[in-house]
């Protein structure tokens, strides 16, 4: 799926932010957004944005259309008579972007007959969103543009007329938001646009660009924002405002919040519905933006094949998430740090084992006199052995639980601070602590069993120890 990126500035303070625009209706299987970053989960977030999508009427061509033909006539007033006027047909794409098909250049009183091939669209008929017109002229230059005899032809079939009226409200719109008249009738489509009289030096030509489109439906472009972005905008969920996104000012509505956006390093971040943004920019500003990146989801068994196929394409920078993770895992600094941590963990286990051994032996030597007195008063050796085992199990169990708690606390505090991206930046969002409970609890269980085994060994020799201790009772008096 295609994606747009931008770095808008938010609020009166101009806080730098990051924006990524995606087709939220299809983002579920592709976008890896942790559920803990969104209240209610990612499914509800995407569904709420898709339900507020901005749409505009389009002209649906007959299914199977492969060729578009017609005639364009243009007249310029206030400038050179030989200025070319280039026209581009604009079609919608499945994930919200626009496909541009150049129709050619026309001159005053020289009609342009065009016949262009359309890309295969499968079962989905092509959808004509409008036309982009580009020329140049001095301030106040007027362009009269007319399209007639627009026809769509399937492969090997007869061309049929394309109805452009059907109650649609056409307009000629500039990126500044200025609009000019446009009329659709039985003969075709006509539009007029006048460049701003104060747009430059008198007599000096400059770019004159506008789009012939249908006015979009009511609504604002839905987006979700991080708390930092909301603070910069001084807005909350449900509020609306005007933001400059992808080169044009658009009306937006905040439909939700997200703690952070993966892949957007700025703390103030915006997630925007790409079809809504593309529609608003083209139909309200005449702006066409091309995707700068594509996001791909692969099946586990086909990931390597897909990565090789994408890497074979020219002019692209490929970011393979699994390959980056594998490369980071083999980094010498990372390997050295993990080796040091494992060595420290092994040393801690050995120290704990030695400490348990010394403690059990010292406890047995210290308590043997007390146990001998209890034995003299009638307590049997088995009862005394069981009491020693219970005591050591209680003390060792408390030590294991405290050790696990301290270890998890240290990991939660230190681990997120030492994880960096390949460019030595803090990852966004902040990593979550994932405790490997099996080896952690297994280590604690081994130490507990060691304490019990040593205590059992001491208890097994309790009868001989008690006999020797009874003989020494009172020798210090």
Can you characterise this structure?
The protein is 35% helix and 28% strand. The N and C termini lie far apart (90 Å). Helix 6 packs parallel to helix 8 (437-460) and helix 6 packs across helix 9. The chain is elongated. The chain has a 7-stranded mixed beta sheet. The mean pLDDT is 84. It contains 9 helices and 22 strands. The protein has helices spanning 42-51, 227-233, 274-285, 303-311, 321-329, 332-376, 381-418, 437-460, 462-472; strands at 2-6, 9-10, 15-16, 18-22, 59-60, 65-77, 85-92, 98-106, 112-117, 127-137, 142-154, 160-161, 170-173, 179-180, 182-185, 188-194, 206-214, 221-225, 240-245, 248-257, 269-273, 293-294. It has 477 residues and is α+β, with helices and mostly antiparallel strands.
Topology readout:
Elements: E1 2-6, E2 9-10, E3 15-16, E4 18-22, H1 42-51, E5 59-60, E6 65-77, E7 85-92, E8 98-106, E9 112-117, E10 127-137, E11 142-154, E12 160-161, E13 170-173, E14 179-180, E15 182-185, E16 188-194, E17 206-214, E18 221-225, H2 227-233, E19 240-245, E20 248-257, E21 269-273, H3 274-285, E22 293-294, H4 303-311, H5 321-329, H6 332-376, H7 381-418, H8 437-460, H9 462-472
Parallel strand pairs: 4-21, 18-20
Antiparallel strand pairs: 1-4, 1-22, 2-3, 5-10, 6-9, 6-11, 7-8, 7-10, 10-17, 11-12, 11-16, 13-14, 13-17, 15-16, 18-21, 19-20
Helix pairs in contact: 6-7, 6-8, 6-9, 7-8
